[in-house]
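Data card: per-record layout.
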Amino acid sequence: MLIVYGAAKSRAVRTLWMLGELGIAYEHKNWLPRSTDTQTAAFGALNPNRRVPIIDDEGFVLSESMAINLYLAKKHKSPLYPTDPHQEALAWQWSLWETDRLDRQIVNHARHTQDLPVAERKPEVAKAAWEECVIAFDVLEVALNKTPYLASAQFSVADLNVASALYRGLVLDLSLWPKTNAWLHRCWERAAAQKAQQMRG
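The structure for this 201-residue chain is written out next.
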């Protein structure tokens, strides 16, 4: 059976969402990043980076949530994985784009505006992160003005990968980006997304 390592309150939420879309059975190790569970020699042997999520698919071990989701969708021949090579390439493009342009930026903004204790927040970090988020939201808005989803006219792994990383965007004022705001909520209204969100507690 497939084993997923990583708590829903981490980037593993992306993989848990994908598994919900696929409807396949799995064992879940609900381990937080940097928890004692991830510091053991056994976990280090699975992933020397000691990061979550990782999966163990009957002996095939894979890390990095974007790669995991692309792999799972393709392996299980999900309609979420585009068969058209152009749309497939767009799914890769948006997944890689997110990790560079939005992932750390939106996390840093959240940490320094609400997550960290007030005394530990750095307004300058929050401001710089938000400025980068604005640029990324502008890019998404342009794309979503052309098509309702990122890789095609249908929801795909591209949307799941980007929208799952934008979980914190659900509580942000995105009124300046109406297409992006509508797309984000549309993605998170899916049944598998709602289940993953509930797992976050």
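Known properties of this structure: DSSP finds nine helices and four strands in the chain. The first strand starts at residue 2 and ends at 5.

See the next section for split statistics.
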